[in-house]
């Protein structure tokens, strides 16, 4: 068994994520993580205060991964907010399929006392809010971002649960719905922005 000093913070978080992916949040215990990284549980407490902090660290790590996936779409925001929103949604969908347990955690699966700091959430939401701001203006930016996020979360949660049982092309349905919800949000686009696009 390696000494505690040989176990890194990153190893602990990675082990915790692996446990959640394999067995759900209920499988995540300090003992399970300690066993996976090869230390005794008391040694783990020298680095992590307890299970709540461990869950929070996992959620932050998942958000960091999602941010990296969204980076290329975020680069489009200034010149094409509609296109950026669509790409952000597509990247979120790809992420949800790649890491369904992580997706579940960041969209309400973590206990309230284990949620990450607001600044972490704000950082991850920034590209979408910025795109929404450019599309509908400052006053409605957060409303628009929440509407878009709620639609995507609902669709993806149902998709991951296998809830679409009536046949048809789910990829096409996602793209159709995405276009409709962007159109609906953009209907509130400020008049000066519309005029600028016409000239």
UniProtKB/TrEMBL annotation:
<dbReference type="InterPro" id="IPR001647">
    <property type="entry name" value="HTH_TetR"/>
</dbReference>
<feature type="DNA-binding region" description="H-T-H motif">
    <location>
        <begin position="29"/>
        <end position="48"/>
    </location>
</feature>
<keyword id="KW-0805">Transcription regulation</keyword>
<dbReference type="InterPro" id="IPR050109">
    <property type="entry name" value="HTH-type_TetR-like_transc_reg"/>
</dbReference>
<dbReference type="InterPro" id="IPR025996">
    <property type="entry name" value="MT1864/Rv1816-like_C"/>
</dbReference>
<keyword id="KW-0804">Transcription</keyword>
<dbReference type="Pfam" id="PF00440">
    <property type="entry name" value="TetR_N"/>
</dbReference>
<feature type="domain" description="HTH tetR-type">
    <location>
        <begin position="6"/>
        <end position="66"/>
    </location>
</feature>
<dbReference type="InterPro" id="IPR036271">
    <property type="entry name" value="Tet_transcr_reg_TetR-rel_C_sf"/>
</dbReference>
<dbReference type="InterPro" id="IPR009057">
    <property type="entry name" value="Homeodomain-like_sf"/>
</dbReference>
<dbReference type="Pfam" id="PF13305">
    <property type="entry name" value="TetR_C_33"/>
</dbReference>
<protein>
    <submittedName>
        <fullName>TetR/AcrR family transcriptional regulator</fullName>
    </submittedName>
</protein>
<keyword id="KW-0238">DNA-binding</keyword>
């Amino acid at each position: 068994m390696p000494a505690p000093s040989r176990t890194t913070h990153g190893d602990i978080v990675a082990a915790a994520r692996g446990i959640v992916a394999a067995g759900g949040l209920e499988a995540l215990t300090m003992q399970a993580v300690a066993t996976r990284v090869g230390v005794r549980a008391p040694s783990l407490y020298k680095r992590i205060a307890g299970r709540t902090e461990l869950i929070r660290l996992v959620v932050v790590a998942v958000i960091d991964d999602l941010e990296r996936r969204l980076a290329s779409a975020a680069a489009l925001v200034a010149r094409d907010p509609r296109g950026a929103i669509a790409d952000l949604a597509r990247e979120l969908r790809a992420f949800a399929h790649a890491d369904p347990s992580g997706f579940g955690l960041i969209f309400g699966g973590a206990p309230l006392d284990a949620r990450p700091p607001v600044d972490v959430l704000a950082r991850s939401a920034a590209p979408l809010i910025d795109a929404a701001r450019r599309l509908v203006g400052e006053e409605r930016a957060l409303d628009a971002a929440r509407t878009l996020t709620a639609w995507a979360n609902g669709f993806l949660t149902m998709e991951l649960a296998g809830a679409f049982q009536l046949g048809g092309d789910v990829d096409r349905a996602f793209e159709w719905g995405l276009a409709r919800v962007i159109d609906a949000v953009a209907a509130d686009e400020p008049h000066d922005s519309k005029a600028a696009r016409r000239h």
